[in-house]
Amino acid sequence: MLDRPLRTRGRPALNACDAVDEDRLLGLAFATFAERGYEGTTLRDLSKRLGVSHNLLNVRFGRKEDLWTRAVDWRMAQASSFVASVFDEKADPEIRLRHLIHRFCLWATLNADIVALTNVEGCRSTWRLDHIVDCFVRPFQQRLDELLEAVRLRRSVFDLSTPALMALLVQGVGYYFSAIPLQQRLGAGAEVDSDHAAGQAARLAEFVLAALLSEP
């Protein structure tokens, strides 16, 4: 007779949580946190959506705050290199800055869930905001400061702080592509659909760069 894990009638097997693909689990968790917020998300609801028991989800990930941290770290690691890799390009600082702004605007068309999470968490002072800022935002800001300073040594750059520039990109361009139902109601039409988003992102990038690199 084959050894099988004990189970209670009507409940998932004891190893059911291990059978769930971790990427799928973390992706669903992140999407739910981004959509409903931390307080509006429960492990019990997530376990129902995954088809595993609440207790098994607790065993694998621990408390809700532990799952939130794992999901955020996983999702940010997935998405960050698309933009951050520009910092390491072997190119003139102005060229790297142009690439960075274009890449960030394109990134915004692909990561509405991250934009949604930062919009929710950025409005309150919590341990979750500390985690996002310390692990992801501030390291990016430091490298952006260094890049802008390198550009300023060669040409004039509009006197705009990096917090303001990042807000324009994330809460400006990012929100534009994440709040698509709103944009459609305002008449954006094809600008924000999947076939035209990349072209619109390029136009927005050129708009930002025209202001940032304008001659005094």
TrEMBL record:
Protein name, entry field: Transcriptional regulator, TetR
Domain named HTH tetR-type: residues: 19-79
Keyword terms of this UniProt record: DNA-binding, Transcription, Transcription regulation
Pfam family, one: TetR_N
DNA-binding region(s) in UniProt: 42-61
Superkingdom of source: Bacteria
Keyword DNA-binding: yes
